[in-house]
């Protein structure tokens, strides 16, 4: 089928279109396209340069990609014991059980592991998700951390701010504070721009301490305290609330 809209530059690029429809970040939607899972007007489309107009019918698998009338942006206060996933055959509790069914396809901006709690941001706007999660955008994430033993604050500060290699990855914090202002402490606040898997737990483990509680309290300028969200609850936000 002839793709006139891809030739004359009208419409929006297919990866952004799918991201806006809630199929994940632009990188994730590019993977869907390149793997042959997307059809445009009944034809498999693997070109990332194709543009989509309102007259096109786009399918991802057996699901039609329909742009929302208005983008959804929400903040969730995740409890422990809930997985940041749209589905896992090994674990029944996911964060989407805490949300209405109409929000089941929202993408997550910065996941928390099963045993961590705190602030999560979700949206069907792929561009917004990318803006929040990508390190180059400068979005800080702040965590409150409790340990099973006291360790010297200066030791933590020096190691975390300098950074170090762990399992082939460079781990680094932007800021670190002792919450009780003691020279040796079992309670810290850590600010990251990176988003490595179980990063804070790994960083403290390298210093011989085990994290007993980890709560994300801030993403960018949005804080749990100001949002005033009860654990397991959510609030809808204006997407503009994220930006400075």
From TrEMBL:
* Domain RNA-binding S4 span(s) in chain numbering: 12-67
Q: Which GO terms describe its biological process?
A: enzyme-directed rRNA pseudouridine synthesis
Q: Does the keyword RNA-binding apply?
A: yes
Give the enzyme's EC designation: 5.4.99.-
Arranged from A to Z, the UniProt key words for this protein are: Isomerase, RNA-binding
Gene Ontology MF terms in the entry: RNA binding; rRNA pseudouridine synthase activity
Metal-binding among keywords:
no
| Family of the protein in this entry | Belongs to the pseudouridine synthase RsuA family.
PANTHER family attached to this UniProt entry: PSEUDOURIDINE SYNTHASE, PSEUDOURIDINE SYNTHASE FAMILY PROTEIN-RELATED
Q: What is this protein called?
A: Pseudouridine synthase
Provide the species name. Answer: Leptospira langatensis
């Amino acid at each position: 089928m002839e793709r006139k809209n891809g030739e004359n530059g009208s419409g929006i690029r297919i990866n952004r279109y799918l991201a806006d429809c809630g199929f994940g970040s632009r990188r994730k939607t590019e993977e869907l396209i390149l793997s042959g899972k997307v059809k445009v007007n009944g034809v498999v489309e693997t070109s990332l340069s194709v543009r989509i107009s309102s007259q096109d019918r786009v399918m991802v698998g057996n699901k039609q990609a329909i742009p929302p009338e208005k983008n959804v942006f929400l903040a969730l206060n995740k409890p422990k014991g809930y997985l940041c996933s749209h589905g896992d055959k090994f674990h029944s509790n996911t964060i989407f059980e805490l949300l209405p069914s109409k929000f089941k396809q929202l993408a997550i901006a910065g996941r928390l592991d099963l045993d961590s709690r705190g602030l999560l941001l979700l949206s069907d706007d792929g561009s917004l998700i990318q803006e929040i999660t990508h390190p180059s955008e400068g979005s800080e994430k702040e965590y409150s951390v409790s340990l099973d033993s006291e360790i010297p604050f200066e030791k933590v500060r020096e190691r975390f701010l300098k950074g170090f290699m762990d399992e082939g990855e460079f781990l680094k914090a932007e800021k670190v504070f002792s919450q009780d202002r003691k020279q040796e402490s079992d309670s810290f606040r850590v600010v990251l721009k990176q988003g490595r898997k179980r990063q804070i737990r790994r960083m403290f483990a390298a210093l011989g301490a085990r994290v007993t509680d980890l709560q994300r309290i801030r993403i960018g300028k949005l804080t749990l305290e100001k949002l005033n969200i009860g654990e397991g609850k959510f609030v809808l936000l204006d997407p503009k609330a994220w930006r400075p």
